[in-house]
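Cross-posting from the modeling subforum.

Setting up a comparison between two proteins and wanted a second pair of eyes on the formatting. Protein 1 (sequence, then C-alpha cells):
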Amino acid sequence: MDFELFEKMARHADSEDGVSARFYDRAVKTGKIDASGFPVFEDVCFCEIRIKDNTTEVFDQPADESKIKRFPAEYARYRLGKKQRAVGTPLEQFAFLTQAETEALKFRGIFTIEALAELADDRAEGLNLFREKKLALRFCKAAKEQMSVVQYSQKLEAAEAEIARLKQRLTEASKVSPVEKGGKRL
C-alpha cells in the first residue's frame, strides 16, 4: 500500500465540515465511433458532493483542479484505490465482506483483498480486522493454487496439441512413402 498517500488522507480526514465528497470513475460517451460502428466510451473522474442534512441536492460533476484542491483527502483516497485495484482483486469480489465492511475498509485505505492480506497482524488487530485478514490470506492462497491448476491445464493442452500434430505428420508420412516388406509394397 502507498503509505504516503494514506498518511495524507489521515491528516486531512475531513476536508470540510458538513460536506462530503467522493471521487469516482464514470464511463462517458466520447462521440467517437469504433470500427464496428459502436460508440466509444472512456473513464472520466467525477466528483460527487453532498451537503449534510440536505438529501435532495447532490452535486455530481467531472472533477477539476478546484475540486481536487478543495477535497485533497478524498482525492488521495480515490487515487490510492485506483492504484491498488490496478494490481489486486477489488474488495467487492470478496464474498466474506458486507457492503458496510467493504466501505469501512476503503475508508481506511484498503481497496483490494491483497492489501487486506498484507496488513501487519498488529495493525489488523488494532483495526479489528483480524478475521477478515485471515480470510483474505486464505483467498490469496487458494487463488495461487488455482493459478497452478490453470498453468498445468495450459501445459496439458499444449502437449495434447503437439501429440495431435505429430500423429497427423506420422499419418501423412505413411501415405507418401509406403514401406516395403520382403519386396512387396504394403
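Protein 2 (same layout):
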Amino acid sequence: MENAKSMDPKKFKRILVGVDDSPDAQLAFRYAMNRAKTDNAELVICSILESDNMNIYQALSKDYVHGQREDLYKHLQRYQDLAERVGLSQVKIVIGEGDPGETIVKSIIPAVDPDLLVVGSLSKSGVRKYFGSQAAYMAKYSPVSVMIVR
C-alpha cells in the first residue's frame, strides 16, 4: 500500500467561493484565494442578492433591484481586485438572486461547473445565521465538494 504522504493531493481547476460581509465569508474568501493560487485554479466569486431583504415595493421596483445588483457587483469587484493583486489571473464574478443556499446549488454551480465550493459557516442575515443552515444546505445538496470555513 502506498504511503498517504507520497500521494499527490487533489488539485482543483475551478473554485467557487460564496461571499457576503460576514467574518466567516471573509475567511472563506481568503482560503479560496490561497487555494486557487496554490492549484493555479480559476476563482469564481459569487454573491446572492436576497429578495427577502427587500420590502414589496423595493422588490417590484426594477430601478431598486438594478441599483442593488450594481452595488453588489461593485462590492464583488473589490474582491476580484484583491485576488488579482495576489497573483490570480483567472478571476470571475457571478451574482445570483434568491435564497443563497438554494440559488448556489441549483443555479450557480450548474452554470459555473466548479470542482470545489468554499463558503463561510454563518450567514449574516436573519434567523438562519444562528443555525448555519445555508452552509448546511449547500454541504448536503451540492454536487461538488464543499469546504465550510469558520
